[in-house]
Design a protein that fits this description.
By secondary structure, this protein is α/β, with parallel strands linked by helices. Helices cover about 30% and strands about 35% of the residues. This is Class I SAM-dependent methyltransferase.
């Protein structure tokens, strides 16, 4: 995670222009909330925040972070395929966030389409969906590889080297894997290593835009650059964009 997004305030700052335009008490859904930095930052602004994640551990961490910062929000363990059943009865959301490259964990084009459909359905008439993604075109061009961090990263007084092991498949629609290892260098010079292997199903930027249109959303902003590592897409309900 970039240094600037390690705090709730820093995570919100990345979406400053959009957040500043929200009305007081706007309803916000942070879908795939992870450790909760963005959700807690939004709640600290007085927004009505619901944070969901398919991982019960991430939902708990978000709840704990909210308590640490003295803010109120709703946390739920909810996967994308459960969103409609769990949240359809709620008032619609002014903004739905799906950030941190989360969408690539939907298991292929069909599951990704279903996830986008559920998010779109939960939006108010004037609502926006905010997505961030890796530039998968760039990732696949580089092929399978081992990326070792060029320097030590310091977190909470501990130093570590981060290693990314990319396993890139021949076809776009195949399950790809990314193993992330954190090798912590201790005070006595020994190394403690922890790793996690993630599955992902990459997609082209134009495929994402096409699917957004298909679920009733119109792209208002798109920072895609084929040479940049990440991009952000903001989409609105078509009836609003046309109005």
């Amino acid at each position: 995670m970039p240094e600037g997004k390690l705090t709730p305030a820093g995570s919100v700052a990345a979406f400053g222009d959009l957040v500043e335009r929200l009305p007081p008490k706007a309803r916000v859904l942070d879908c795939a909330c992870g450790t909760g930095q963005l959700a807690v930052g939004l709640a600290a602004l007085g927004l009505d925040v619901t944070a969901t994640d398919a991982s019960a551990a991430m939902a708990r961490r978000t709840h704990q972070l909210a308590e640490q910062h003295g803010v109120s929000l709703r946390t739920l363990r909810v996967s994308w395929d459960e969103l409609s059943d769990r949240l359809d009865g709620s008032p619609p959301f002014d903004v739905v966030f799906c950030v941190g490259n989360s969408l690539a964990h939907a298991e292929g084009a069909s599951a990704r389409f279903d996830a986008l459909t559920a998010m779109s359905r939960l939006l108010s008439r004037d609502g926006h969906l905010v997505l961030t993604s890796r530039t998968w075109e760039l990732v696949r061009t580089r092929g399978s590889r081992l990326d070792v961090g060029p320097r030590l990263v310091r977190r909470q007084g501990r130093d570590a080297v981060v290693v990314y092991n990319w396993q890139i498949e021949q076809r776009w629609d195949e399950e790809h894997h990314l193993e992330i290892a954190v090798a912590q260098v201790t005070a006595d010079g020994s190394v403690l290593t922890r790793s996690e292997r993630l599955s992902c199903w990459p997609f082209r930027q134009e495929e994402l835009v096409s699917q957004l249109h298909a679920v009733g959303l119109e792209v208002e902003s798109n920072t895609f650059d084929p040479d940049a590592e990440n991009y952000t897409v903001i989409a609105a309900k078509k009836e609003r964009a046309q109005g």
